[in-house]
Amino acid sequence: MMKNDGLARISTDKILEKYGNTKIIVFGAGFDGIRFYKKLFNKLNISYYVDNGKTDEKMLGDKPLYSYSYLRENYNDEIIIIASMKYCLEISEQLEEDKFEQEKDFWIWDGCEEGHRVDFCDNKVIKYKNLNKKLWKTLEGKRIKENKILIPYRNTCEIVYPAWSYAANYLADKYNASIYCIGGIRDIFNSNVYDIYKSFNVVGFVDETPKEKLKEEAYQIFQDIWEKIKTVDDIKKIVVYGENFGIDILRDYLRFNFPTINELEFSLKKQIEQMIEYIVFWHHYFIENCETVKAVIVWDGIYYREGIIRKIAYGYGIPVYTVDNRECFRWDYEVRYNFEYYKKFYNMLSAEEQRKGIYWAKAELEKHITGYVEKFDMGSRSVFSEKITDSKILSSDNRLKVMICPHYSEDDAFPYGEDMLFDTPWEWLEYLGNMSNKLSYDWYLKPHPIEKQFGDDLIDIFLKKYPKIKLLPKFVSPVQLRKEGMAYALTIHGSIGYEYPYIGINVVNAGYNPHISFNFSRNPKSIAEYEKILTNLNKLETKIDKNEIYQFYCIHFGFYKSKKIDLRKFLYKSEYLKDIRGLIDSKTESTTELFNIYTDEITEERHEYLKKKFEQIFIEMDGYKDGIFYKNELSDE
Q1: pTM of the model
Q2: Separation of alpha carbons 131 and 134, rounded Å
Q3: Which residue of 45, 443, 453, 578 is surrounded by the most CB atoms within 10 Å?
Q4: Which helix (H) or strand (E) holds 490?
Q5: DSSP readout, 211-245?
Q6: Domain tally for the chain?
Q7: pLDDT of residue 625
């Protein structure tokens, strides 16, 4: 149970086994405390919550919330569970100063780090670190340079470190800089993780723990903003130092929280408060360091603090790059896509290229609708591979059959920006729920194939509220649905926008999407137009031009060279390491075998090849311009 950081940690299962009938005090009412509450409130005897932060709240859910002084004065042999990944060390020290004992009086909830439990000290990781030291010739004993390259800190079992090592060292050489992690000393739960970073020339951390003066500034800004928050639109309009951060706050919040947005919700309030604290810290950091920070690498540049860092750095003219274990690209203010140019790009192809592209698209689409999944990252199981069953799935009545297809709840709510008809995906879903009560169609909802328990719970709540909508299995053949009469599918911007029309199911989108310049699915430009389409589905002309689907497909997946560069084409030799689905699985299993596979394929010769390759892709990323047709060549196969 004890880790090498000297802190007593306890898993969720052990809490239930050991203290299922014991009174519990939960120390921490931030993100992790709220997660603890949602996960265990009906399974444990929680007396109350304690938090050191400034809060006027009196409750967390149905449990009282008190200051630390209340615990100190009223403690009566309860077990204290610290639910704070960020402040667990400080809270442990705070309790020990008042004579509370680890493992006797208090534990740290290890659920704060679910999926983050690798010790990174086995022979496979040591082998990887030793290889890095040899290849990168670490900066130990050398002068630390004034210029900085910032990279993410992650203490999970991800094979993203090789990509960061090449990207960061290329930038460090280019700008005569040293490499620093974004985070803070408290982020180093395991020194073996930081040793991985040091093995490819990381020299330190940017400790983003704000000083007291900045905390006061952040709290005052938060108080001023919070008084004005009444609706989702108010959140989207949050401005700090003249910069809009509302979408960044909202997109992060919606991933792991029930989409109840109101001014009294505790989790939303804590989210906004913490995000503003990050904004204040990074605003001041870049004011002081904008001349010396030469580039920033982020994991995705969207969630948690990364969207904030990306926006502020970009505002100071500092280049920001997403680099992960599958792709990389350079950020503009937001990610901009060229979907509206796809039809134009197709028309720019020569007659021979068009012929080849259509031929290629037909073959690829036929493979796709039979369940072939190599090109697609969202899951190793395709709904198109599902067998058509003898048992009927849809009802036999003559009403028009309409299917709602929500996005994956833990994914970005705004993957293509704010250009949606509704404020959030959940508002879109609520709108359709209300429409189901008005329009006498045969309504269905099909969850996203990779939806998890959180999303399943939301869908369950939604369907109880709107009982006219029937639930479909996640994995059901769309071909079978079409044969049984499914006429329309509703999405915001999903890939069903081309997949379903290809098999004869009409699609209505509700936002900017990759298919926007073609007519094989419908793209209303306003809620009024959207409602008019939905109200008149029985009367709409439903002819689908498959040739347009081929045109879209050969541009999107074939000829168009996206600003997002696919690292898997050259970074790894192993097919397993190239496979993002395998990496998702490995994260769950927390295996270090990934390091072993990677280390076995690296030689000095390959190292030099990868260094040159990363130099080429950074030149390509830095030269990218929107609206230009960067063209790939299709193979003759």
Answers
A1: 0.75
A2: 5
A3: 443
A4: strand 486-490
A5: -HHHHHHHHHHHHHHHTT--SHHHHHT-EETTEE-
A6: 3
A7: 83
